[in-house]
Design goal:
D-Maltodextrin-Binding Protein, domain 2, globular, binds glutamine
Length: 235
């Protein structure tokens, strides 16, 4: 696969923002694993190199600044393809469909945003979930205090310790949290935002983008995508 220029020889360097299980998070040994990691490993394999993961704030990923600065070749961060982000990044074909979900502590009766009047809702800074809630609050003049956290772990911790009454993030990360912490949290409502995740490369990096899309297409055809989905997302 000559022709694909990489920021570090012998490696496909990936920018991500940890933790975002089941897409990328450290396992018990400290190794970063997950759905995105497994798919990007296929790209690295195709290029004959090894994936190296760099943990960096989501802002630098979605703004394109990390890719533009040569910090990494590819961004893989459970990142939704949006028109705004398309201005500064080139996205792969979509590789995952997601919606937003409102999580509450188990036993909480709240089912809608309206019922959260006078309450606090936690979001993850810079994400589509934050945008969605802020837009809803503004459009419907909801009396909700939106509190932003720097990453998923901080947001989930805030919910678990009742610093917020509810929290909004992508549905699969709540499903993963519930799987790992049975009985603590439940999904009170879903918001069908129709999001799709894409891997991103630096604008104009057509060679790498082609390799990524070919790798995704091959994985969908030969069953590898389904295997990876079953491993990390479930049936
Ligand atoms: N899918 C959401 C977004 O793109 C959240 C991504 C994340 O937090 N890693 O904004």
């Amino acid at each position: 696969e000559g022709g694909v220029a990489l920021v570090k020889a012998g490696a496909l360097t990936t920018c991500t923002h940890l933790p975002y299980a089941p897409f990328q998070a450290k396992d018990d040994t400290g190794k970063v694993v997950g759905f995105d990691v497994a798919l990007v490993d296929l790209v690295a394999k195709k290029l004959g190199v090894t994936q190296e993961i760099v943990d960096t704030p989501f802002e630098g990923i979605k703004s394109g600044s990390d890719l533009n600065a040569g910090k990494c070749d590819i961004a893989a961060a459970g990142m939704t393809i949006t028109d705004e982000r398309k201005q500064v990044l080139d996205f792969s074909d979509p590789y995952f469909d997601a919606t937003q979900a409102l999580a509450v502590l188990t036993g909480t009766t709240v089912k809608t945003l309206d019922e959260l009047a006078g309450k606090r809702v936690g979001v993850q800074g810079g994400t589509t979930g934050e945008d969605y809630i802020k837009t809803q609050v503004a459009e419907k003049s909801l009396d909700i205090e939106v509190v932003s956290y720097k990453d998923l772990a901080a947001q989930q911790q805030a919910l678990a310790t009742k610093q917020v009454d509810a929290a909004v993030n992508d549905l699969p990360v709540w499903n993963e949290y519930i799987k790992n912490n049975p009985g603590k949290v439940e999904v009170a409502a879903g918001f069908d935002t129709g999001e799709q995740y894409g891997f991103a490369v630096k604008k104009g990096n057509a060679e790498l983008l082609k390799a990524v899309n070919e790798s995704l297409a091959a994985a969908r055809t030969d069953g590898t995508y389904d295997q990876i989905y079953a491993t990390w997302i479930g049936a």
